[in-house]
Amino acid sequence: MSNLSTTSDDILACARSLIVAGGYNGFSYADIADVVGIRKASIHHHFPSKVDLVRTLVARYREEAEAGLANVELHESDPLEQLGIYARYWEACIADVSAPFCICALLASELPVLPEEVGLEVRAHFRSLSAWLTSVLERGARRGRFQLVSTPRAEAEAFMATVHGAMLSARAYGDPKVFGVVTGPLLERLAPRSLQIRP
Amino acid sequence: MSNLSTTSDDILACARSLIVAGGYNGFSYADIADVVGIRKASIHHHFPSKVDLVRTLVARYREEAEAGLANVELHESDPLEQLGIYARYWEACIADVSAPFCICALLASELPVLPEEVGLEVRAHFRSLSAWLTSVLERGARRGRFQLVSTPRAEAEAFMATVHGAMLSARAYGDPKVFGVVTGPLLERLAPRSLQIRP
DNA sequence: GACTGCCATCCTACCAGAAGGTAGGTAGAG
DNA sequence: CTCTACCTACCTTCTGGTAGGATGGCAGTC
User: Is B43 exposed, middle or buried (0-12, 13-18, 19+ CB in 10 A)?
Assistant: First the structure.
């Protein structure tokens, strides 16, 4: 039933983990070929160029992310819990070795040398994530659930930046726990104990 | 008087800006040769291998950073102002095009594919910066200048993560102002208005 | 069912250029 | 005479990418 062969997905999954490890210039078609068990040229059949590969990869990542956030919205209505689910999702990803970094955050750091088409996708993810966080914070503030120091937009940007920075620190220290140490108080601060008891 | 020729410094400065743009795998000896106006082979005279080049580059960066922080310590005794100087330093770097990213933060994102020797220097910078921030926050808390939610160490990690994430966001949005939007409230939060009037 | 053409997948074999790096030489300063 | 800084010329390996062929499944048609 799947309209895309498993090989194509394997290539994408492999490229994803390679990008997570070393960014756009940190891997080659040969690396993917080795892991997937296919010849270099065969990858070009599925993705004519490296730009094609990474662009579709990031586009799909964005879709998944947006679907994930929509799902959070669907199953949890409390803004604080929504942010908690988001933070704990990454905490889990970083704790097991599966995906210890957001590929868009990683690629954003090399934006100046990224192919334009890839860069556009990366920027779009930032806008989309920031928009969601802003809406959550806005709603939370309206309901008196959050105690915001500045505007929802600014708080959203700060939240996103801290999460991304926490990923970086966890990687730098080689210690997954750092992520939780940084992001835990982040939620705590948005909704101090006094607000924890729901009306 | 300088025990290192200007060429050597030129190479380092050039490599630095190239790394800021695209990380370890984002530049080549040929790129440096083009900019500095020298042949590829001549770079090998100053830095036998790429690892040598980047290791000394990061080592020097660390030295400069530590000297800079020591200097802050020397000229400003107020902890809040110290953090302010640090934050505004980066704000200025990002605002003009000079150095819109901390090379250690950038390199940390590609840590898994970095040569070990370079990785060690990068990690060392994180530890050193975190130690300084911790000491500043500790002192500030003792003096009743800061209102800390968690331990000085945790607050320091959060501060550092947020600054790094703010660099990333500024780059992703292509808008230097984002850095200030994120880091401004960060200081504001540590020392609320009520504490601003010094005893 | 057998024949046929088509298309997707994967292959071997190749290419040009870029990568990091080496060998060996020259010019000038001390 | 030596040492530093730089050069030309070259090497190997990797890079993303191409050309063209083998295989094999799946229509449609007789």
Answer: buried
**Which residues neighbour A5 within 8 Å (Cβ) at sequence distance 6 or greater?**
A46
Following DSSP, what letter does each residue of A77-130 receive, concatenated? --HHHHHHHHHHHHHHHHHSSS--S-HHHHHHHTGGGS-HHHHHHHHHHHHHHH
Q: Which nucleotide is nearest to B50 (CA to C1')?
A: C20
A135 burial (CB, 10 Å; 0-12 / 13-18 / 19+) is: middle
* Rounded distance between C-alpha atoms, residue A190 and residue A137, angstroms: 9
Taking CA B27 as the corner, what is the angle to CA B24 and CA B30, rounded to the nearest 5 degrees? 140
Chain B partners of A97 at a C-beta cutoff of 8 Å? Answer: none
- A181/B154 CB distance under 8 A: yes
Q: Which residue of A has its CA nearest to B106?
A: A109
- How far apart (Å, rounded) are the C-alpha atoms in residues A43 and A37? 11
CA at A14, C1' at C7: how many angstroms apart?
27
**pLDDT tens across A8-46, in order?**
999 999 999 999 999 999 999 999 999 999 999 999 999
pLDDT tens per residue, range A106-158: 999 999 999 999 999 999 999 999 999 999 999 999 999 998 989 999 999 99
Interface residue of A16, A104, A164 to substitute, partner B, most B CBs within 10 Å: A164
Strand C at less than 7 A from CB of A35: no
A120 touches chain B (CB under 8 A): no
DSSP B150: S
Closest-lying nucleotide for B42 based on CA to C1': D6
